[in-house]
Amino acid sequence: MKATITSIELRGPLKFFALSSKAFKIIRQLKATNCKDFRKKGLWTTHYTMTLWNNEAKLKKFTLSGAHLEAMKTSKKIAKEIRTITIETDCLPKWNEAKELLQKGQVIKY
Q: What is the fold, at CATH topology level, of the domain defined by 2-109?
């Protein structure tokens, strides 16, 4: 199975409202898929998500469609930095391990 771990560092605390609006739509989209597991965590200007998928094809189909795709197109307006990594695993890692893994992930800075 494939897990994707993502962090987003917001441009400022007021961008949380824009993030929340987008996240609500993405979670609704996610619930309509066959995602195996999902976790989210965030405080102030740093937020994290983890999703677990049967395979990479299903992960990519979700990532490149609907509310998630729309959020990616406008992420530059609310984020200073986005980090992401996809790993092979049978279950989502604990948060401390996930944060360590993100240090090796792809970084997009705006």
A: Alpha-Beta Plaits (3.30.70)
Q: Domain segments of the chain: what residues?
A: 2-109
- Summarised one tens digit per residue, pLDDT across range 61-98 is 999 999 999 999 999 999 999 999 999 999 999 999 99
Which of 13, 9, 18, 23 lies closest to 81, judged by CA? 9
DSSP state of 75: H
52 Rama class: left (phi>0) / alpha (psi -120 to 50) / beta: beta
Q: According to the model, what pLDDT value does residue 38 have?
A: 98
Give CA separation, 34 vs 2, 7, 71, 76, 90, in Å. Answer: 13, 22, 20, 28, 15
Look at residue 27 and give its three-state secondary structure: helix
Q: Label residue 33 by pLDDT band (50, 70, 90).
A: very high
Q: What's 94's DSSP letter?
A: P
